[in-house]
Amino acid sequence: MRCIYCGTPLSSIDYCSGCGADVTILKRVVRISNLLYNEGLEKASVRDLSGAVSCLKRSLKFNKENIDARNLLGLVYYEIGEVVSALSEWVISKNIMPENNAANLYISRLQSNKNKLDVINQTIHKYNQALQYCRQGDDDMAVIQLKRVLTQNPNLIKGYHLLALVYLKQEEYEKARRLLKKASQIDATNTTTLRYLNEVEEATGVATNLGKKKYRRRVTPLDEREEKKFLGPVRYMSGNDTIIQPTTFRDSSSAATFLNILLGFVLGAALIWFLAIPSNTKKINQSANQQVTDANTKLAAESAKVDTLEEEIAGYQAQIDEATSTMEAAQSKADGYDQLLSAAAKFLSGDQNGAATELAGVEADSLEGNGKTLYDTIMTSVKSTIYESQYAEGATAYAQGDYSTAAEKLKQATETDDTQYDAWYYLSFAYYNLGDTENADKTFAQTIQKFPAQAQAANLSQYVSDQSVLTNTGTTDTGETQAETNADGTPAAETNADGTPVSETNADGTSVDGTQDGTQNW
């Protein structure tokens, strides 16, 4: 023992001879560490390995340089199958005391057997895989993996515990009992083992005897005769003396010898037939079954890996789609702001038509804050210009018989300015001429509701195929028609200021050229 301050070897006195420091507490800590080490050694000697681990860990808490305690802890870890923990303790011990340390021997022996290290790595991997199977609810695969782990590392206490827990879940209590008895032979007082055994006993109502049973065969009189005949000298008591009676010996004839040899050949052949051949067949079948099991295990693992990769790909694709959608929305928003700025520039330069054209392509819903305010300001100023452009395109398309384009442009015109009767009038007849009865009835009803006087003059209600639309919108029609002038006071056959034709109907509801279907000829 050395002083923690100056490193001077300590004597029996309570002061350091080198620096004069009081080392009473240091000596007491070392004594406690040694006491716990001795207690752990006693527990390990009676295979109370979990208790030994607890004592040795406490010993190292008091004195981390207790080489004996650390080496013994590594041995206990190795005994319960936790080779990695054992190797860690030995490496730490070697670093603390490089020379004359038993840990060097333990490490060299373990590292000299590379196959052993490979098996240990495989068992650790398989145990972790079995634990993952248990968490996923795949108990059958977990049982297969744990059986292979215990075959390669029969001292792994955690493997016995996990496999017994799976059996308890499957209510195979006897299998769990056998595994826990094996675990108790490795670590006699492990609390987890005893707790699981208690669960088995409560479920089955049968106590578990962890001691070794010695079975004694009951000897019958016939057995005694057989023993006297075949099992050598006979022993019996006469008072306090033991009398040994030797067996009788009679020389056999040559015929008997030949018969005995023949019987030996027959018995040998029978043993080969009934024992060796079935054993070989069983081994072959077991090997084939093991190969099938290994193949199924590998296939299941690969399938699980493929499913995981597919889920990851789907997740990445969803992220890509979301990012693409976000980027497109941002790009659309940016384009909208660019068009808004272009419209503002043209508006400031006095180009009302150009500003209206740019503003028509802006998505107003995508604008926020000052951008929305600027849009509303410019729209208020160029609203009439946009309306006239849209109305002119719609009316021109209507005059050319392109009712689809007319409906699209006139719809835009009504959305830009819904107070203009002409746009609603031509939009209604565009739908009517397209045969779109639903939109036509809806638009006629809206026109009648918004412009009752002009609609009554043009007798628009006669073109509504479903009169319930008029009732739902609350519109009425007196049935009187006037066809002298349009809503703006121009003659029915004249054109508007932008050069588009103005509709005209007669008193009987026919157009000026005599048509009855409400279509306009130009």
Calculate the mean pLDDT score and round it. 76
Radius of gyration, CA atoms, in whole angstroms: 51 Å
User: Can you name the CATH architecture of one domain?
Assistant: Alpha Horseshoe
Helix content: 55-70%
* Largest sheet descriptor: 2 strands, antiparallel
Q: Give the H and E element order.
A: HHHHHHHHHHHEEHHHHHHHH
According to CATH, what is the topology of one domain?
Answer: Serine Threonine Protein Phosphatase 5, Tetratricopeptide repeat
Tell me how many strands there are: 2
Shape summary = elongated
Please count the helical segments: 19
CATH homolog superfamily of one domain: Tetratricopeptide repeat domain
Beta-strand percentage range: under 5%
Concise summary:
Helices cover 67% and strands 2% of the residues.
